[in-house]
Amino acid sequence: MTSGNRSEAVDVKKSYEVRTYGCQMNVHDSERLSGLLEDAGYVPAPAGSDGDADVVVFNTCAVRENADNKLYGNLGRLALMKTKRPGMQIAVGGCLAQKDRDTIVQRAPWVDVVFGTHNIGKLPVLLERARVQEEAQIEIAESLEAFPSTLPTRRESAYAAWVSISVGCNNTCTFCIVPALRGKEKDRRTGDILAEIEALVAEGVSEITLLGQNVNAYGSDIGDREAFSKLLRACGTIEGLERVRFTSPHPRDFTDDVIAAMAETPNVMPQLHMPMQSGSDTVLKAMRRSYRQERFLGIIEKVRAAMPDAAISTDIIVGFPGETEEDFDQTLHAVREARFANAFTFQYSKRPGTPAADMEGQIPKEVVQERYMRLSALQEEISWEENKKQVGRVIEVMVAEGEGRKDGATHRLSGRAPDNRLVHFTKPAQDVRPGDVVTVEITYAAPHHLLAEGAPLGVRLTRSGDAWEKRNREAAPKPAGVMLGLPGIGAPVPLPAAAAPGCGSV
């Protein structure tokens, strides 16, 4: 955690809990919120505290139609707890706070602080002001005050980290409310990004994920169209940085120099998550997506020509207003042609404040559901076929923490391949830690994971494993930290198929 001037307002060690909803950017912001609170003297509440903390922070998402209902339901459950816990404070931040502002305190007057996406660094000050003045503090900045990555942090992983390279988005997709809540794109200076990565590597991190709402548009704010490919190549010069990923790019900005940088930079992983959203040119036009099916599939073809083993994933929205059966058939066609390793499919739901919410031709729920099931079945079949191609391959797996829910029963460990596929493998005779690297041979494929059932072929202990061991040794006497939903390693764990696409994926 970055050092800073510790607030003297917190006289005793008060506990905090952060609850995170939504996309990768929110997870990244929540790491910073936790870091800010710890820098101000708070300590994490024990795992499973379920609101039994001195400060509970909701980092909200606004991309789903029922996001507000979920928030107010959770706030309602804390209202009684607050009456029984003198001095307890509740704060609401994130996209829904940026959108609803005064409405939150009107509907839930027991909330102490409301802050937006642009001023998360103010949280400790606002909590103290609310305590002293004994009234709710609402502060919503209209423009970014500080990049999230410049704030104190409490990372849940010792070996993998997010690095924000830009915030905001200049696109106007009709299904997305992000530009209204996160603002126009603003890029960080390249030197600041690389300095942060080097500092993370010095702490033991071996994998970083470059993060932005439209990550490969990086450079538009500073007037350099090749800035993103240059950044990828620069990451390749950082000693000790083993894996570089990024999320989420937009097809409009996916240029040949980016493909070349990915293929020619050894530590940039052969993995690409690029949202397609629809395979229909008509629907893409209605979505205001500035590409068509031919352009999208052309990018996929170029990526595979440069990196034959690349695993490519996507996001697809089913049932966008006006989508006909012919439009949907075009999506199925594009999926067959692209042969995604996996696709995160979403049933369209109205996002309040977006143009699509008021469009004619809203599709009946039962039609959307039927199309969704057909698409899911097709992608499941393709995912399984693509995973079967991995059988017999020898790959390096970075050991993860918490990725395999059945590892204890199966006596296996889990981790991520370079292409980000999830691999469950037999425990080696030698002890390994999260962040260490194990060489295995894939023996079996399922649609969503791979198995390496034989004895591992090799073990490489790493500085990241050392960092994990050191962190856990130092933290042993302390209560467990609040889990923010950060995946154990690398690119974010995919959202469930029924969830809404995050703002980092549009």
From TrEMBL:
EC number: 2.8.4.3
HAMAP family for the chain: tRNA_metthiotr_MiaB
Domain Radical SAM core: 155-386
Enzyme class: transferase
Pfam family, one: UPF0004
Lineage, uppermost ranks: Bacteria, Bacillati, Actinomycetota, Actinomycetes, Kitasatosporales
Domain of life: Bacteria
Catalytic activity, as annotated: N(6)-dimethylallyladenosine(37) in tRNA + (sulfur carrier)-SH + AH2 + 2 S-adenosyl-L-methionine = 2-methylsulfanyl-N(6)-dimethylallyladenosine(37) in tRNA + (sulfur carrier)-H + 5'-deoxyadenosine + L-methionine + A + S-adenosyl-L-homocysteine + 2 H(+)
Family of this protein: Belongs to the methylthiotransferase family. MiaB subfamily.
The protein's name: tRNA-2-methylthio-N(6)-dimethylallyladenosine synthase
PANTHER family given in the database record: CDK5 REGULATORY SUBUNIT-ASSOCIATED PROTEIN 1, MITOCHONDRIAL TRNA METHYLTHIOTRANSFERASE CDK5RAP1
Annotated MTTase N-terminal domain residues: 14-132
Single GO MF annotation: tRNA-2-methylthio-N(6)-dimethylallyladenosine(37) synthase activity
Subunit and partners: Monomer.
Cofactor(s) the protein needs: [4Fe-4S] cluster
Protein species of origin: Streptomyces clavifer
Binding sites annotated in the UniProt record for [4Fe-4S] cluster 1: 23, 61, 95
Subcellular location: Cytoplasm
Recorded name of the encoding gene: miaB
Cofactor: binding comment: Binds 2 [4Fe-4S] clusters. One cluster is coordinated with 3 cysteines and an exchangeable S-adenosyl-L-methionine.
SMART domains (UniProt xref): Elp3 (SM00729)
NCBIfam families attached to this UniProt entry: miaB-methiolase, MiaB/RimO family radical SAM methylthiotransferase
